[in-house]
TrEMBL record:
Gene3D superfamilies: Rhodopsin 7-helix transmembrane proteins. It comes from Chelonoidis abingdonii. Keywords: Cell membrane, G-protein coupled receptor, Membrane, Olfaction, Receptor, Sensory transduction, Transducer, Transmembrane, Transmembrane helix. The chain crosses the membrane at residues 31-55, 67-93, 105-126, 138-161, 203-225, 246-267, 279-298. Belongs to the G-protein coupled receptor 1 family. PROSITE patterns: G_PROTEIN_RECEP_F1_1, G_PROTEIN_RECEP_F1_2. This is Olfactory receptor. InterPro entries: GPCR_Rhodpsn, GPCR_Rhodpsn_7TM, Olfact_rcpt. It is found in: Cell membrane.
Length: 316
């Protein structure tokens, strides 16, 4: 293990890079993992590009729900790209290191996009709530101006909160150990390396997670309670089925994303285990960005119909 340190003065040294030790113990298996994750990553990028193009090309999909879905697909591509390519390289090379600046950049991008995704998913739940519980006022309430504002507010919240938090984390001194027990610069594994009392940061992290993960989560929960009670009151089985089919894809994505995020950021610190944490992180950095386009295209009649039409129009 090479220790690269810059001498500040006799008593203090400052690290300039971290090394990842997440998958080192897997040895030859790393090549197999590389291939699997590369495949998933390429499918994710392709799937999300297909969703974006399909929605842009299909006039029948120019509604608020699909406006938000374009935004979400774009976000998920960036989100998974902030983590996966670096992890892929590290599965192949011997020296799995990242500069502190690189680590900070990764944490900024990853956390900003992560929180933006929470807010965007809440916005999408609100959109479904208005569509199902107030169908007559839907076009009035969800005007294109409101949609742009809601999406912009999600991005702004993610940016402001996580930029502040990450900046704060990187004002901590890092003077060794330099090994990150993870495959990317996530908040907790990095905070654990600071050579200072980090209890304040961990409390702040918990507070921020509580407010900004639980907040959108509760909004989603309330929206779906209202949605489901409205659906159950509908008289015909056909309209029940139709209403439910427009929100089931979103519900699956929300459950996966928040299930893993809440588990990671709100579990009691005493039960923190790097190994479970790594597995769960793989879920929300590698797997859920792929599931999003899959769930939306395969479970959704409108999208499937638009796909057939677009293909028919352009290739026959
Ligand atoms: C997502 O929404 C924001 C805010 O409305 C907008 O600026 C951005 O261009 C959108 N991104 C995509 C890919 O549609």
């Amino acid at each position: 293990m090479s220790y690269k340190k810059e001498e500040l003065n006799e008593s203090q040294t400052v690290l300039t890079e971290f090394t990842f030790v997440a998958f080192s113990y897997l040895q030859e298996l790393q090549v197999l993992l590389f291939l699997v994750f590369l495949l998933i990553y390429l499918l994710t990028i392709m799937g999300n590009i297909v969703i974006i193009l399909l929605i842009k090309l299909s006039p029948s999909l120019h509604t608020p729900m699909y406006f938000f879905l374009v935004n979400l697909s774009f976000l998920e591509m960036c989100y998974t790209t902030s983590v996966v390519p670096q992890m892929l390289v590290h599965l192949l090379v011997e020296h799995k290191s990242i500069s502190i600046v690189g680590c900070a950049a990764q944490m900024y991008i990853f956390t900003i996009l992560g929180l933006t995704e929470c807010c965007l998913l809440a916005t999408m739940a609100y959109d479904r709530y208005v569509a199902i519980c107030h169908p007559l006022q839907y076009t009035l309430i969800m005007s294109s101006r409101v949609c742009v504002c809601l999406a912009a507010a999600s991005w702004l919240t993610g940016f402001l909160v996580e930029a502040a938090q990450t900046t704060w984390i990187f004002t901590l001194p890092f003077c060794g150990p330099q090994q990150i027990h993870h495959f990317f610069c996530d908040i907790l594994p990095v905070v654990k390396l600071a050579c200072a009392d980090t209890s304040m940061n961990e409390m702040a992290l918990f507070g921020v997670s509580m407010l900004f993960i639980m907040g959108p989560f509760l909004l989603i929960l309330v929206s779906y309670v209202r949605i489901i009670s409205t659906i159950l009151k509908m008289s015909s089985a056909e309209s029940r089925h139709k209403a439910f089919s427009t929100c089931s894809a979103h519900l699956i994505v929300v459950t996966l994303f928040f299930g893993t995020a809440l588990f990671t950021y709100l579990q009691p610190r005493s039960s923190y285990s790097p190994n479970t944490d790594k597995m769960i992180s793989l879920m929300y950095t590698v797997v859920t960005p792929l599931l999003n386009p899959v769930i939306y295209t395969l479970r959704n009649k409108e999208v499937k119909g638009a796909l057939k039409q677009t293909v028919a129009r352009n290739f026959y």
